[in-house]
Structure formats: C-alpha cells, structure tokens
Amino acid sequence: MNNHSEAPVEAYEPPYYVAVFTAVRTQEQSDYSETNARMEDLVKDVPGFLGMDHAQTPGGLGITVGYFRDAGALAEWRSNAEHRAAQKRGQVEWYRSYTLHVAKVERSYGFTRAQSPAAG
C-alpha cells in the first residue's frame, strides 16, 4: 500500500478496480485536512483496499486514485457511513466541482529505475 512516498502505488495483477476522484475545491476548507486524514485512515481498514495515489496542481485541481482488489471492496468503501457523511459535507462546503470515474483494470505494469551507486 502506498504510504505517500515519492513512488506510485505498485502495479497489481489484474483484474482490480480504481476509483478516480478529480475535484476543484472551494475557498472554504474548514476541517478539510482533518476529514481527509480520517478518510485515509478509514479506507485502509477496508478488506481489499490496495492503496491510493494523490496529485494536486498549483491551480487547485486535485486527483485521488483509490485501488481496490474487487468490486465488493469498492462497494464497502462507498457505503461507509463516515465516508458518506464526508461526501455530503464536501458537496456543501469543500468542492466547487468533482467527478468520479470507476473502472476495472485489465492491464497493469510499472517501472522503477535501479538506484545508482553513490559516487565515490
């Protein structure tokens, strides 16, 4: 599972599912950081959660990609009561607009450059 280091979530053996949440936030961000951290802690308890990647542009567009082993894991996260409450608050306060795309991954691969030995 990604610990928000500089590496993306690893490529898993397909099939698995991704939920791609893309949002533009409002100026009102009261409690957003705390709620976001709570959601990240909660989703880790969902059996079948594989990891998460985040990206933010300087202009305010944010993207979060959640990876799930199967549709059941994704459905469990979608129906979590705290997550549902955070979604509602997001619509009222934190997001100017957002989209959610859910897809079944059929192909997955990755690359990691080998570490170079330190120059002596």
From TrEMBL:
Provide the E.C. number(s) assigned to this enzyme.
1.14.-.-
Kindly list the GO molecular function terms attached to this UniProt entry: monooxygenase activity
Going by the UniProt record, its keywords in alphabetical order are:
Monooxygenase, Oxidoreductase
The organism of origin for this protein: Nonomuraea insulae
Top-level class of the enzyme under EC nomenclature: oxidoreductase
Domain (ABM) ranges: 16-89
Pfam families reported for this sequence: ABM
Q: Does the keyword Oxidoreductase apply?
A: yes
The protein here is known as Antibiotic biosynthesis monooxygenase family protein
Asked whether the keyword Oxidoreductase is assigned, the reply is: yes
Name the source's superkingdom.
Bacteria
